[in-house]
Amino acid sequence: MGDATLTYRHEAGMNFTRILPHIVVGSCPQNRADVARLAEEEGVQAILCLQEDCDAEHFGFSLRTIAEACEARGVRHLQVPTKDFDGMSLRAQVASAVRAAWPFAQRPEGAYGAWEMCNEGDGAEKNEEALPEGESDSMRLPHIAAQLPAGPMPTLYVHCTAGLGRAPAVAIALMWWVLGWPLLEAYARLVRLRPCAPRLESLRAAAVDLLGSGPGSGPALVPAAVQLLGGWPHGVCIAGLGRSWRDPVPLRWESCAGEDEEPGAGDDADAQICLDVPAPCEYDPVLRRGLRLANALQGRWTHRTRLLPGSYAYKLVVQGRWTTSPDHPRAVDAGGALNNVLQVPYPDQSEAAREQRARLLSGEGSGELTVEERERLRQLLGGKAKEDSAAS
Predict the structure, then answer these.
(1) What's the DSSP call for residue 131?
(2) Which of 22, 51, 298, 338 would be 55's cystine partner, CB 3.0–4.6 Å?
(3) DSSP class per residue in 204-263
(4) How far apart are CA 129 and CA 91, in angstroms?
(5) pLDDT digit string (tens) for 315-344?
(6) Mean pLDDT for the chain overall
(7) Measured in Å, how far apart are the chain's first and last C-alpha atoms?
(8) How many CA atoms lie within 13 A of 127 on its CB side?
(9) b or e along 227-261 (b: 16 or more beta carbons within 10 Å of the residue's beta carbon)?
(10) Would you say domain 222-344 falls under CATH 2.60.40.10?
(11) d(Cα 77, Cα 392) in Å, to the nearest integer?
């Protein structure tokens, strides 16, 4: 199945892990031969691709070619583009991915438990309930094999680029929302079988988004703005806010023309950060040299966006130097980095909604869904999958 490690080596070829009898998680198919292998040897009937087109282009192949190879083999190719290393994109797209894969993620009828026993060494767990009593494993295997359908189990293949982030996260969502696994048990099984780093916090938030949305609607985005008052120099950017840290976004200069205007007045932002220029000057001598125009201009640097409710870490990047504001909320992340934090409130502040968020969002929580919540997710996500055409 290839070597699944936390380091991706594209030149080593495709690698994958069967995490359930009918679900495989892996790296991207790179050519027609990979598609043929998945179809013939692994019984893959549908491929859920979480790559963007640019992900494949970076490694010199085309998703169009993969889709055409799938069509030739009678394999459904479903693409739900999700940005790599982007928790906000995963949170926004995981529902679409689950909806697309729903028909192929259902537990197959029949000899599911027997398959687990025969394939115990291939990642599946032993299922004693499928076996007659009073016999040793070696004596019982012929009985078990007789229950199995001919050929490999019909399988869903879930992949991103490396199969270490986006794909494992969506597989956990399928186990949690579709198959009824407790969240932490699904996570524990997957990372035991395939070392990887799925973002559980994005899945928790996506569940809350879905359960709080109206029928057929997606999660609600909340307007947000970050503002730096005064004459900051050119080259002011913001990084983070749920996006990739690798891509800081330039702020836009807005002249106040000396007007006596409240910070943020006229903005439609429900969540704002207004940072006063003197703050970084007071503690960072390198920035002080770059901010001599602080009092010479009247205006503000602004970044307006729309965010899903939640907590967002961010940093300021001023003339290439990364920094934070000491006068606004800050927190140390799991990796030990100090960041500013923006809190975007959830619109529903009812007691029931707050209880639900406390149960589902907490990193210490089990993520256990109530019967009503699981049924609601089925109503929202159990629609028909939409197939990509090779020519699209």
Answers:
(1) S
(2) 51
(3) HHHHHHHHTSPTT--PPPEEEEEEEES-PPS-EEEEETTS-TTS-EEPEEEE-TT----T
(4) 37
(5) 988 888 898 877 678 999 888 999 999 888
(6) 78
(7) 30
(8) 16
(9) bbbbbbbeebbbbbbbbebeebbebeeeeeeeeee
(10) yes
(11) 12
Q: Whole-prediction pTM value?
A: 0.77
Q: Which residues of 346-381 are buried (b: 16+ CB within 10 A; e: fewer)?
A: beeeeeeeeebbebbbeeeeebebeeebbebbeebb
Q: Which tens digit of pLDDT belongs to each residue from 66-117?
A: 999 999 999 999 999 999 988 889 999 999 999 999 999 998 765 455 555 5
Burial class (CB in 10 A: 0-12, 13-18, 19+), 333: exposed
H or E element at residue 102: helix 87-105
Q: Residue 345: is its pLDDT beyond 60?
A: yes
pLDDT tens-place string over residues 203-222: 999 999 999 865 445 567 78
CATH code for the domain defined by 10-108+153-216+375-381: 3.90.190.10
**Which two structure tokens, joined as six digits, stand for 370?**
């109530």
Write the Ramachandran bin of 147: left for phi over 0, alpha for psi from -120 to 50, otherwise beta: alpha
Label residue 215 exposed, middle or buried (CB < 10 Å: 0-12, 13-18, 19+): exposed
Tell me the domain boundaries of the chain.
10-108+153-216+375-381, 222-344
Question: Which among 160, 196, 274, 281 is annotated as catalytic?
Answer: 160
The neighbouring-strand residues paired with 343 are 311
- Whose structure tokens read 């494993």? 137
